[in-house]
Amino acid sequence: MRVGIVDDQQLVRHGFITLLTDKEDMEVVGEASDGREAVLLADRACPHALLMDVQMPEYSGIDATREILATCRTARLSF
Hints:
By secondary structure, the chain is of the alpha/beta class. The protein has helices at about 10-20, 35-45, 60-70; strands at about 1-5, 25-30, 50. It has a single domain, classed as 3-Layer(aba) Sandwich (Rossmann fold), CATH 3.40.50.2300. Helices cover about 45% and strands about 20% of the residues. The protein has a three-stranded parallel beta sheet, sandwiched between helices. Helix 2 (about 35-45) runs parallel beside helix 3 (about 60-70). The longest helix is centred in the first third of the chain and has 12 residues, at about 10-20.
């Protein structure tokens, strides 16, 4: 499973990346520090799932999710 990690705190992103990298069936395909970067990550890396923080400054995870779902090119993305 291709997974993207989105959180405004670098330490949190690093923790999730460390946990998921050890899983044979998981591949971390990118990370983002805000909702706008999450939209770009979803478009560029085509993850199967995004592990996304809901409360981030500027552009929240909820705003990013709405935009990704509205413009998503793949039906396999899970939220």
